[in-house]
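Folding Query — how this chain folds
Tokens — whole-number codes for backbone shape
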Amino acid sequence: MPAIVSLAHGSIAQTLSAQIRDHILSGAFAAGQHLREVELASLFGTSRTPVRHALAANEKDGLLDYTAHRGYVVRAFEVMDMDQAYEMRAVLEGYAARRAAERGLCADRHRKAAAAIESVDALLQQDAPLDDAAREAWRCRNTEFHQAIVEQSENRFIGPMLASVQQIPSVFPPVLATYEASALRIYNDQHRAVLASILRREGTRAEFLMREHVTLAGEVIRATVATTNKAPG
């Protein structure tokens, strides 16, 4: 089970919300599991009030279902949900890449995107599967790259829409099994190609490359899910 972060600093409710989310994404809280305030308060060493707010936040993000009779339950997603989420991501992030190319990438966002690519290059010097720390480092750098492109689109609707659909694929435990250096090198090369197109102000090509990149990630994860579902036991 993921390590529990200290609640001594910052907003307790926000910290709890992140902890609950991490437990869901790691599989520590399984699909269909009831999350009860009393048990969570004991687990995280806090009162029930911030737990209640944290549960509501995760329900808003789409990771939990809530009914008056059953309370909060970890949401189970179908493969179709994952496919549709990646389709939406491809459309939204492709549009963001085109907008960024048309507007031109500002210096700060260029540096942010380029630094993310370089950091991943350094991280992937070995072929062995990434450990937990390396996976987290890759996730951070990957997020930084995509955020730089979305921010440069300067469309205030894209971010919230992406935040909603990005929750869905992450709930599948097999996602964690796709963090292999060989696959991540392909993703990083695609990042490099997207950035180059944006810098050349090639809007149509940047959109195509970004959509292809997101679609590939979805196909890889879907294949992993399908293989896992067929596994005996």
Observations:
- Residues 1-10 have pLDDT under 50 and may be disordered.
